[in-house]
Design goal:
By secondary structure, the chain is of the alpha/beta class. Helix content is about 45%, strand content about 15%. It has a single domain, classed as Rossmann fold, CATH 3.40.50. The model has no long low-confidence stretch (mean pLDDT about 95). Bound molecules: nicotinamide-adenine-dinucleotide.
Length: about 260
């Protein structure tokens, strides 16, 4: 993708859950295009640094804040740490996600609660606090939510995850609607079946999932990490300035029709 190396040089971007498989690829892409990135996760700082270093991320362009974003106090720690290091925040990526793969009838109530807490509550808390910080610093900022093609397609055996991503989509649209006149935009990226992270784990450990997924991708192969990172680069860039309330669907055609 042809964006200049300084396409994001004016931006300080915060990413939650950034030390996971997709997050690291996104951070690499954003820093390679000039962004300063505050990375959040719940892992220890030494492990975070190792993961960032292992993929040759320019460590002068990142700072790491360990915090549990299911808690308001954790979000406060993140926003304060981010501003202290790199100043006002232009873009917040609400990126944390988890999935418990099993049939709906086997789900326990606490598993439902955990899925909603980790996926939806963290997105709400970070979106809210980041937007408040943008308003305070008079920044025309941008909230970006990582959802999924399954926000619209009920992929089997991850029902609460599907519901959580649909909730995040409507949360994003609500932020977009309420904050447009204050100069803050909100959008979402909906990846498909990515060849790293949550989906790769299911692909490797669950033969039913693998058989279904192999039939479900019209383009015929799992989504490369680079494809997701490029979508983030575009949405964070000036090229996407007129977008708000949109979902950027990059799924290799998965959502075109049910193929399982
Ligand atoms: N992998 C896929 O195929 C796929 C497809 C579509 C969408 N997504 C979405 O992309 C995002 C990243 O997925 P991934 O595959 O990289 O997952 P991952 O499990 O590799 O990364 C998630 C990260 O979130 C962190 N995290 C969990 N709870 C946290 C908390 N309370 N506070 C702070 N950090 C926390 C984890 O430590 C982990 O590093 C998720 O939102 C996921 O739903 C993934």
């Amino acid at each position: 993708m042809c964006f200049s190396d300084d396409a994001l040089s004016e931006q300080h971007i915060v990413i939650s859950g950034g030390c996971g498989a997709i997050g690291l690829g996104v951070i690499k892409k954003l820093t390679d295009h000039g962004a300063k990135v505050t990375v959040n996760d719940i892992i220890e700082p030494t492990l975070a640094e190792t993961r960032l270093r292992d993929i040759d991320i320019d460590l002068t362009r990142v700072t790491y804040v360990k915090a549990d974003l299911t808690q308001e106090a954790g979000v406060e720690i993140l926003i304060d740490g981010a501003q202290e290091k790199f100043g006002s925040i232009q873009t917040a990526l609400c990126h944390i996600g988890m999935v418990i793969p099993k049939p709906l009838l086997d789900y326990e109530a606490n598993e439902w609660d955990m899925t909603m807490e980790v996926n939806v509550r963290t997105a709400f808390l970070l979106g809210k606090s980041a937007a408040q910080s943008m308003l305070k610093h008079q920044v025309a900022g941008h909230l970006i939510f990582t959802i999924s093609w399954v926000a619209d397609v009920p992929w089997p055996e991850i029902g609460p995850y599907n519901a959580s991503k649909a909730a995040m989509k409507q949360l994003m649209r609500s932020f977009a609607r309420e904050l447009a006149d204050k100069g803050i935009r909100a959008n979402a990226i909906a990846p498909g079946i990515v060849s790293v992270g949550l989906a790769k784990h299911q692909w490797e450990t669950d033969s039913n999932y693998r058989a279904r997924a192999q039939k479900a991708i019209p383009l015929g192969y799992m989504q490369p990490l680079e494809s997701v990172a490029n979508a983030f680069l575009f949405l964070c860039s000036q090229a996407a300035n007129y977008m708000t309330g949109s979902v950027l669907l990059v799924d290799g055609g998965c959502s075109l029709y049910p193929m399982d």
